[in-house]
Write a structure and sequence with these properties.
The structure is a single chain. By secondary structure, the protein is α+β, with helices and mostly antiparallel strands. It has one domain. Helices cover about 35% and strands about 20% of the residues. The strands form two sheets. Strands 2, 3, 6, 7, 11, 12 and 13 form a seven-stranded mixed β-sheet that branches. Strands 1-4-5-8-9-10 form a six-stranded antiparallel β-sheet, with no helix packed on it. Strand 9 and strand 10 form a beta hairpin. The longest helix is centred in the C-terminal third of the chain and has 22 residues. The radius of gyration is 19 Å and the shape is globular. The termini are far apart.
């Protein structure tokens, strides 16, 4: 089994960095990162798309398994090497359950994992600026719910968009290669909205309502999350977006990305 030897943060940073550097004929992806709060006062939101859709990414690492005794080769699921993503099993797979709830109202929610097997491969992809092309996007809307504390996996093979969730026996489903990311973004264009104060407030209120309802369902007391459910004191577009990004990071570890047309 080959491990990439990098962290989820490093992979996610590289993937998002490439999004900020690309401009596909007027199409731009802009991550909303809580770590950029200091830049808020410097007018970072002036560079937001004018019309956009909201995407949500949960970054995962993958292991590359190629030995004949690897579980899903030995079991006959695959006859070729495959990548395996381990879902967090903590608190009865709480993170996955929360992402599943989130994606019901925000369908552009994806697990994003690498399609390279070593840190050397990652470095080569980073300097060649093709980390995106060597990534896999698995729609959380197509995942199964999990209600136990067992270890669950997502698997996929190089060169195929098919993937499997190893929870219940089901046929393979389809994911997106990073090579298809521009096409994926453009598919959402009919649903783009003006990125104004109303857009930012609506996203926050929608997510805050869902999080509040889920915390009640979980019967979980989480003081930091409860505080984050309150609207920001500064009722501006930038403040709402940053506050939403903070809430998402705390709730399910997802990153908010706005994708749309660039300002003139």
């Amino acid at each position: 089994m080959a491990e990439t030897g990098i962290s989820e943060f490093t992979f996610g940073y590289a993937f998002l960095y490439e999004q900020t550097q690309r401009n596909w004929a007027g199409l731009k992806a802009v991550p909303i990162l809580p770590s950029l709060k200091q830049e808020q006062d410097l007018g970072w939101d002036a560079h937001l798309p004018t019309q956009a859709a909201d995407f949500y990414y949960q970054f995962k690492l993958s292991a590359f398994l190629e030995r004949r005794n690897s579980k899903y080769i030995k079991d006959g699921v695959y006859n070729t090497p495959y990548y395996r993503v381990s879902l967090y099993r903590r608190d009865n797979n709480l993170q996955h359950s929360r992402l599943r709830v989130h994606c019901q109202t925000h369908p552009n929610t994806y697990y994003v994992a690498p399609e390279f097997s070593t840190s050397t491969d990652f470095q080569a992809a980073f300097f060649a600026r093709n980390v995106t092309e060597n990534s896999r996007l698995i729609p959380v809307t197509a995942c199964d719910d999990i209600d136990d504390a067992e270890q669950h996996y997502l698997t996929y093979i190089p060169g195929s968009t098919e993937w499997r969730q190893h929870s219940k026996a089901k046929p393979p489903r389809h994911s997106r290669s990073g090579k298809q990311l521009e096409a994926l973004y453009r598919e959402t264009q009919p649903r783009w909205r003006a990125v104004d104060d109303t857009f930012a407030r609506d996203i926050f209120e929608s997510i805050a309502t869902s999080v509040d309802r889920e915390l009640t369902h979980e019967r979980r007391v989480d003081a930091p999350l409860t505080r984050a459910l309150r609207p920001p004191q500064d009722a501006t577009r930038g403040a709402y977006l940053m506050h939403t990004a903070d809430l998402l990071s705390m709730y399910c570890g997802a990153t908010l990305v706005l994708v749309g047309t660039v300002p003139n």
